[in-house]
Amino acid sequence: MEAVQTKSFKEQITEGIPTELPSPKRYEVDINHAPKRKEILSEEEKKLALRNALRYFEPKDHAVLLPEFKEEVEKYGRIYMYRFRPDYRMYARPISEYPGKCEQAKAIMLMIQNNLDYAVAQHPHELITYGGNGAVFQNWAQYRLTMKYLSEMTEEQTLVMYSGHPMGLFPSHKDAPRVVVTNGMVIPNYSKPDDWEKMNALGVSQYGQMTAGSYMYIGPQGIVHGTTITVLNGFRKIKKNPEGSIFVTSGLGGMSGAQPKAGNIAGCITICAEVNPKITHIRHSQGWINEVIEKVDDLVIRVRQAQAAKEVVSIAYLGNIVDVWEKFDTENIHIDLGSDQTSLHNPWAGGYYPIGISFEESNELMANNPELFKIKVKETLIRHAAAVNKHTAKGTYFFDYGNAFLLEASRAGADVMAMDGIHFKYPSYVQDIMGPMCFDYGFGPFRWVCASGKPEDLAKTDQIACDVLEEMAKTAPIEIQQQMQDNIKWIKEAQKNKLVVGSQARILYADAEGRMKIAEAFNKAIAKNEIGFVILGRDHHDVSGTDSPYRETSNIYDGSSFTADMAIHNVIGDSFRGATWVSIHNGGGVGWGEVINGGFGMVIDGTEDSDRRLKSMLFWDVNNGIARRNWARNEGAIFAIKRAMETQPLLKVTIPNLVDDELFNMD
């Protein structure tokens, strides 16, 4: 029987790890749980994992906790410390409800709780926000200790976070970041998937994804805008009106859950397959998808109806995506745009499921016979790619959504390679769409959260942002008018599209000028008491936050796409230019060892200090990436960095000299 909790929310936060053990928690079967992780530790390593877990607790409690943690590592492959889950409801409270000595620290607590909100997080009891393994913390002791430290923090301290573990508060100063986060930063030779499995099972490293381990996830909205722009520009690329056209994809988890909503906003027919019944029905209940269909024959009938009526509708197919591609081929249903957003960065641990095996059976196979599971996944990837190839031969435009679909399909032996045997036959969406049309010009996923928790504050910030963009559009050069108009349309319709899940947050693609002007306008409104504090941030999937050769930097052609200087410089530069917290991760989106990505959070409070910091940091945060893309000879970036130098005389960037291709044709 669980003890009745009599302590207030603030008391529980400041308590940290309880001095008296709380009662064991019931395993709630109605919660979407992470699958059991593969058996990877030796008996001696299991003992080490247990010692690592017990060091959070007083020796007097070790005899009670040892068998409990031993059961967890045997049963789930990880030690989550379920007993220490808080009794209070997990959600982003108004900033005024958090205990503390520092408003910046309270804002970070708000963002952490938002990442673990049941409406936001994919596996909330395992502290996984999205992507199957994108963790905020490795266990509940880390969560409790971190929240305690934040409640004690002053503006003269910085909290140091090592892959979910709060190392402690260190003396610093008011302009230093309040928190510095690293996730999965291992020695390069130890970045194979099994290395992560072992280190995570030992409790010494974690996969922070992008905005999971950096406390900046805002639910599916965080990706819906970028997906909308991608789908819209995909149709523009093939010169097709979205009305009555078909977009086929898969995945309804964290990031991928945005796809149906984006398809609706773009104005097409969206079919999105998902094998997990629980997450499918969650997305349907949240209004992110219009309909759920469980039989592929029924799907064919419904899609033909939608085509005939030119409906704007999103349909979840509860089943394997391969069924859809293969059935639509035999039924001659033309797919206009195709992609995939399953978590193939994590193919062997729940990111992608094999065809012909139920969801439950797959989870059993994954844990108990991982080698056979891997074979089944590879066989499915081969079939998946073969079905896609049949459609592209009929005119379908297929793009990789940066989830490592093509990478893992190629490793499985699927027919996805170009004639040269080096490149893929299909482009990454960044390579073909987002890179040249947005990132090169500095447009990326700027976002903000209203710390008051008030919907009316969000509505006011929407209007402020819209006013700023409309004013900027009057004098914006022709090269970026399309981007400006897309974002003005987006922000005007944001309220009616009901994008908020969890915190009162908004995302908007903007360049450095737009971000600074919007943030400056927010700061002025806060100073006038028109709105409460605002927390600025962005997706790591941005102009300069991430070095990822198969996604964010896939349109870098000078040979530097496998280097990570940009992401490292980004987080270092943000940290001394005024960010409230900074983060840098190994892995994220395309897999452990495949990408380095960084992010930030910034609290603005209406003061002159905020105004100074936001102008300094946001300018660097974007232009660092434009400078790198310019040096790679990207035409849009050359234009953008020259324009930035005109506005800021202290900016001096090296411009590449272009070589005439004809010189290489001379004998």
From TrEMBL:
InterPro entries: Urocanase (IPR055351), Urocanase-like (IPR023637), Urocanase_C (IPR035401), Urocanase_central_sf (IPR038364), Urocanase_CS (IPR023636), Urocanase_N (IPR035400), Urocanase_Rossmann-like (IPR035085), Urocanase_sf (IPR036190)
Named cofactor requirement(s): NAD(+)
Record's cofactor remark: Binds 1 NAD(+) per subunit.
Location(s) in or outside the cell: Cytoplasm
Any one Pfam family match given in the protein's UniProt record, by short name: Urocanase
Any one of the GO CC terms: cytoplasm
Binding annotation for NAD(+): G131, G132, Q209, E274, Y401, G589
Annotated Urocanase Rossmann-like domain residues: 219-433
Biological processes annotated in GO: L-histidine catabolic process to glutamate and formamide; L-histidine catabolic process to glutamate and formate
Recorded superkingdom: Bacteria
Predominant subcellular localization, coarse grouping: cytoplasm
Broad class of enzyme this protein falls into: lyase
Stretches assigned to coiled coil: none
PROSITE patterns: UROCANASE
Record domain Urocanase C-terminal: where: 439-642
Reactions the enzyme catalyzes: 4-imidazolone-5-propanoate = trans-urocanate + H2O
Domain Urocanase N-terminal: 90-216
Molecular function per GO: urocanate hydratase activity
Pathway: Amino-acid degradation; L-histidine degradation into L-glutamate; N-formimidoyl-L-glutamate from L-histidine: step 2/3
Keyword annotations from UniProtKB, A to Z: Cytoplasm, Histidine metabolism, Lyase, NAD
EC number of this enzyme: 4.2.1.49
Family: Belongs to the urocanase family.
Function (record text): Catalyzes the conversion of urocanate to 4-imidazolone-5-propionate.
Database matches in HAMAP family: HutU (MF_00577)
Protein name, as recorded: Urocanate hydratase
